[in-house]
Amino acid sequence: MKSWRKILAICLIGVLFLTTSCTEQVPSRFDQAQQDSSSKGATTVVQESEPGGNFNRYFPSASDGYERVYTQEKKGFAEAKLKKDGEEVAVMAISDTLNNSAAKTKFQSSQETIAGYPAVKQGSKSNALLVGDRFQVKVSSRNDSFTENDRKDWLSKFDLQGLSGLN
């Protein structure tokens, strides 16, 4: 009687393996995200990109009651939050466009400059400029009290001349 149960168990396990190995895998949400980002021209980070930590020295210093808090740095990118009275009012970022050549094209038709560098408005809450035909410097409002004039003012406070020397 025991051998009959062993044979049945082995057969059931075999059928289980066969049915699960032959079924089609449903794509995960991460597979779809990878496909979407790849189709938009995004690329992997290139080896020549500047380390994100190298960008920190070009961010403006905290002043006039503002606090600068570095939040992220990775190869080709660095970001800092700008806070006033403990509230986040803006996010500042520097990114290396070697990772995304399409990022530079928006600056080609720019009629505006900030501190001599081509500048663009990105939506209603962000302004950016291109330094040395390579580095995008961006300030985005997180609070309605931080206006477009504030964003432009903070863009001009970056050490843009120093950043251009990284090329």
Descriptive notes:
The structure is a single chain. The chain has 167 residues and is of the alpha+beta class. The chain folds into 2 domains: 2-39; 52-164, Protein Transport Mog1p, Chain A. It has 5 helices and 7 strands; from the N terminus they run H-H-E-E-E-H-E-E-E-E-H-H. It is elongated and about 85 Å long.
Structural class category = alpha+beta
Largest sheet geometry? 7 strands, antiparallel
Unreliable runs, pLDDT <50, ≥5 residues? 37-43
CATH topology of the largest domain: Protein Transport Mog1p, Chain A
Number of helices: 5
H-E order: HHEEEHEEEEHH
CATH class of the largest domain: Alpha Beta
End-to-end Cα distance? 80 Å
How many discrete domains? Answer: 2
Q: How much of the polypeptide forms β-strand, as a percent range?
A: 25-35%
- Average of the residue pLDDT scores: 84
Protein name: Lipoprotein
Region (Disordered): 30-54
Organism: Hyella patelloides LEGE 07179
Biased composition (Polar residues): 30-47
Keywords:
Lipoprotein; signal; Protein Transport Mog1p, Chain A; alpha+beta; 167 residues; single chain; elongated; seven-stranded antiparallel β-sheet
Task: Set down the secondary structure blueprint.
Blueprint: H1 2-21, H2 29-39, E1 66-74, E2 77-84, E3 87-96, H3 102-108, E4 112-114, E5 117-122, E6 126-131, E7 135-141, H4 148-157, H5 160-164
Keywords: Signal
Organism: Hyella patelloides LEGE 07179
Protein name: Lipoprotein
